[in-house]
Specification:
This protein is mainly alpha-helical. Helices cover 50% and strands 0% of the residues. This is Cytochrome c4.
Length: 206
């Protein structure tokens, strides 16, 4: 909770660097190369790749900048990923802004998940005070729509497998581009059953 409060206070007091203004129509053309993994409209059919449709444009921009930064610095900065590093390394700031604008304007398609463990709802809504686990709802909201101004992504309807992969990466500190280490702090306290249950619950949010 201390990290969450600190991060929110920082966000409230600092100004973001100037970002290029995205053009969704230009982004549509540039996104053709992305469609193999993320789908033509950003609704990926492959569950190891994230659905991008309807995601906050500022979050998408940050991730692309982080992928590009990692590729340019050999992983010393940003978010390291062998596929996305190669895809983003040659993108300009304008390309990134256009792609983010395109995906943000696409209609998000929900997912119906069967056999969602009750544990998922408990952790998402209430956390677990005995283990120091903050409720996911605090940042991502009751419907999983996140908060763009705070930099918290929408999670509702995301592939459960993708969510599981990312939670495991945060847990193992293989992904560390989260604001103030908040996701690492939460994920390291989750066990495999927690992650499985949360992934299914979040994916099923409408």
């Amino acid at each position: 909770m201390k990290k969450l409060a600190l991060a929110l206070s920082v966000l409230a007091t600092i100004s973001s660097p100037a970002m290029a203004e995205g053009n969704a129509e230009a982004g549509k053309t540039k996104a053709i190369v992305c469609s193999a993994c993320h789908g033509v409209d950003g609704n990926s059919m492959i569950d190891m790749y994230p659905k991008l449709a309807g995601q906050h444009s500022t979050y998408l921009e940050k991730q692309l900048h982080d992928f590009r930064s990692a590729a340019q610095t050999g992983g010393k900065e940003g978010r390291m990923d062998p596929i996305m590093g190669g895809m983003s390394v040659a993108l300009s700031d304008q390309d990134i802004a256009d792609l983010a604008a395109f995906y943000a304007t696409q209609e998000h398609k929900d997912i119906d998940v069967k056999d969602v463990p009750e544990l998922g709802a408990q952790l998402y809504k209430n956390g677990d005070a005995t283990r120091g686990i903050t409720a996911c709802i605090a940042c991502h909201g009751p419907q999983g729509k996140g908060a763009e101004l705070a930099g918290f992504p929408a999670l509702n309807g995301q592939h459960a497998n993708y969510i599981k992969i990312q939670l495991n990466k945060f847990h193992d500190t293989n992904r560390n581009n989260d604001l103030n280490g908040m996701m690492q702090d939460v994920a390291k306290k989750l066990n495999s059953d927690d992650i499985e249950a949360l992934s299914k619950y979040i994916s099923n949010l409408k």
